[in-house]
Design goal:
686 residues, six-stranded antiparallel sheet, 16% helix
Length: 686
Amino acid sequence: LICKCVADCSTIIMIRIATLVVLSCLALREAWCHGPGPYDHPKNAWKAEETLFQINPQIKLGVASPEEEDGTFKKDRQRVRIEWQGVPNPQASDLIGLWVGQGDVDPRHAVPVHYANCSLLNPAYLSTGSGSSSFVLFNMRWDFHFKLVRGGYKKPTIVAEAPPIKNEIPNAPTSGHLALHADQLSVVVQWVSAAPYPQVVEFGPWLPGSPEKAHTAAAAAAAAAAAPGHGENMHHTVLHRGMDAVRSCEAATGSASMGSATTSEGSGVLTEGELTVGAGGAGGSVPQGVHMNSGGNGICHDSVQPVTCITPPEGSSYLFRATSFRDTYRPSDMCGFPATSVGFIDPGYIHTVVMSHKLLQPGKRYYYRYGSEEDGWSEGHSFIAPVPPQLVASSSSSSSAAAVQTEAGASGPASSGITFLAFNDVAMTNPLLFNDFWADGLHFAEEYGQNSSLLAAHLASGAEKDANLALLTGDLAYALGYAADWDVFGSQFEQAFTQWPMAVGTGNHERDYPGTGDAFGTSARDSGGECNVPFMWRWYSPANIHRNPFKSFYSFNMGPVHILMLDSEIPSDPLSDQGRFVAEDLASVDRELTPWVVASMHRMMVAPATWRHKVVGDVDNMERLQKDYEALFLQHQVDLVIQGHEHAYARTCPYKHGECQEDRRMGARQPSSSDHSSSSSSSSSS
């Protein structure tokens, strides 16, 4: 869903669909989409605790043609061909399973990250007892262990094991993406790595290697001075936890003097503050009196201080370098099966860096990469720096005001507004439903995974690279407690989600679980026991910095648009925290600065749905959300509501109290009107 928002409101929001396949849940609706009881992830059927070992030396299982001659893993999505032979009395229930882990992996305590039937991979297997298949390996930081399993998934028996495939790049950066910072102008970069030490982001306002942009001290000083609010100082970003982090930053940078700092000893929350340190580098390569600005964006669970300093990197064609803050989560942080047990894989560390708005010129394209010289770099990416609403408003309201020039071909100068993307429910339902992504030979008629891959490919092509922002409102990875799916999702969409700052929201498959305070009591288990934890740790948002699943809602401005990201999975009645937030937020919107107001949530408030089921049904939830929000949205003239969940695209007429209002000409939203449009959209039925 691509929305163009125009500052003067002379044109209503234009909606078009890019490469999205419209589909519904069809016969799988009850079982896969909304069925009562546990959401039936295919891996839930795997009885890890029943696993037996009966190694048969006559059965041979091995790596036939690794992409790397030494049989090791050296790049994400590396292909490897596995062969097996000598299986006596082959059965349709025989499987090839893949586990990941350090050292010996005990299948009694973990389900495979992927498995496939031998007879589906090779139909001749049932008569020959042999076969082969090419598998795609995703960098999950640990070694890969292929095993041949008999007895099916209910009574798995390991009869052969291939030599482990050693992961030579556990610290390589993966699953990279951008996010919009809480200050609404800075941009956050996040990625995953096994590295327990800081890695870095290098970034700057020109494409590396550009001959006209030599990396010099003069260029660094000029770029710093050109950024808004800089004066003569270069600004650094520091994330600190109380005074210990301040002292750590002093030690790391050779600080000569310290300014003020806001501390929160023992709170575990990164707080904001300011710190002034002395010059770094030799020969005056960095301007004197470097000002360091801090911003909170996470929780520190260990003794490593999350200090991030932005400096000009030596020997790099990028202008700035920022070191990462690291964080991780454990099974004990989550709430239930399978996330806390057989579905857990050590996530390594989530690395986070804030590219401060004090180094970003609004509307200008910036180039960046993440990783390190030692562990390897990501590919080079770029994004357009966020545009503040006051600049848009001033440039559109006064002919003498200077327009903010953007490098987005579709957006043009700030006076013509911004372009943002919106999508929901984007990942594959599960790799098991689309095995072509993993292994050769399986051709399911199921379109879920295919549609997801089409979206990822379209976005990765750069077709939408000039957008200013993307909204992703829930149901990201569909991991449902199986951590490997987060890694697959991260790899699948890395090329897409590194192009624009993203604002993310919570869906049922991130949040819902009995007894955890969601809106469904004991009726929904859709998160597989994750209860928002992987989502909050892996994906920065102004709400996720609190690590609080009850504070998963927020709002922000981008250009002429005020956007509310709401959480349909927790209470939203007028007496709830979320209900009060929405009422206060809408009442405070300055329509002179942001004439457009958009609300987004995962579940549908209005949609052509008919399924009723106590508490969890589509119609039940539409009635709940309409009761909580419709009067507020009408009172404050919310222009558009973007929703997901239904795995189909639909758009309403201007809507009020269950009825269409007058059919206005496109582009004629009247400031005095009190109706709003609702769009229910999902780019993949995953």
